Amino acid sequence: MSSAVNWIILVVAVLAAVVAVELLRRLLRSRRVNGRFSLAGPIVERCTWPGFATAGLVAFNTGYAPGMSGRSFEFAVQQTITVLLIACVAWLVVQAAYAVTDVVLARLTSIEGAGNRRARRIRTQITLVRRVAAAVIIVVSAGAMLFSFPAVRALGAGLLASAGIAGVVAGIAAQSTLSNLIAGLQLAFSDAIRLDDAVVVDGEWGRIEELTLTYVVVRLWDERRLILPVSYFTATPFENWTRYESRVVGHVLFYVDWSVPVDELRAELYRLLREHPLWDQKDWTLQVTDVRPNGLVELRALMSASDAPSVWDLKCDMREAMIAYVRREHPQALPRFRVEDGGVRPGEAVGPRDDARMIADGAPGGGAGRSTGGGPFRRAAADGRGTLGA
């Protein structure tokens, strides 16, 4: 058979393989198949180009006859086909694995409520395992490419003798990389952190956005990204607000006068919480937790919500509503300091020293001056402790 005929057959075989892959792609994209099998869409999305390349190379390798390129190019052509075929098969296997796991991850992402924590743990583990699998496939395929060369195979026998020394040297050189790799697997399977966990790292609140074998991306509350090595989470303490559940209890502090009607404030807080959509209808309370040295009473309001962002918004809304309520209904309970007038008679001008002496003291009876009938002087706390809400 002439060389021209062989090349025509080879081209026809490659085109037939490409057409077969295209027909399969159109079949998977059809409404009948795609609507019935959830795996069809991800396979088409990820495996189309690897499929074209692999099918074309397989057809070329099958239809290629020795001597078609001449003796001088024979080895180069066969070696090139072998290397490209190994690379394309590895590409196709990795993309197929990602397509299968994409379906599972999509189902896990849609899970809410009580099963959300377990779903996020499985998502984290699947994400890391498929990356490890992809890395292993790439390393194995690279080794297969190298050993397809006869010179490398001959060299490999000599290298095996020094494999122990080479392994020690490589381990020392890649110590940080290996520690991050082991730490990443440890985090995934110890359930210490998961994707979308709410964490506080180095004083910054955020959510775990990406977890790889070498680094972790934390999306902060102001949309910044904090990128940390995986080993940071195994060597440094951090807060995980969603370790067992996403529900969070928040608190708001109020500093008010002694004349505050605590029972009425408690009833108003409960009324506001019942009408608020972010309250999860579980935990709430209003308690007197302290009497400050400046004469103010500290009230602490507790409230719970389904997650950290919700409890933050709930706290802000309750703080604003309670401040408005106290100002409107109980203005006498607004925070203030009481000081004696320091002996100034009614109608007498107050000098700078007298004014400074009157402001310096706090509770009645604590100053050295005598009361002369003048009304008490009052001022807001300059250090912020006299504010109503905290």
From TrEMBL:
Give me any GO biological process, just one: transmembrane transport
Region spans: Disordered: 339-390
Residues passing through the membrane, by range: 6-28, 81-108, 128-149, 155-174
Q: Where does the Mechanosensitive ion channel MscS domain start and stop, copy by copy?
A: 177-243
* Lineage start: Bacteria, Bacillati, Actinomycetota, Actinomycetes, Streptosporangiales
Q: Which Pfam families match?
A: MS_channel_2nd
- Return the Gly residues bias intervals: 363-376
Q: Which UniProt keywords apply?
A: Membrane, Transmembrane, Transmembrane helix
- Work out whether the entry's keyword set contains Membrane: yes
GO cellular component terms given for this protein: membrane
Q: What is this protein called?
A: Mechanosensitive ion channel protein MscS
Q: Which superkingdom does the taxonomy of this entry point to?
A: Bacteria
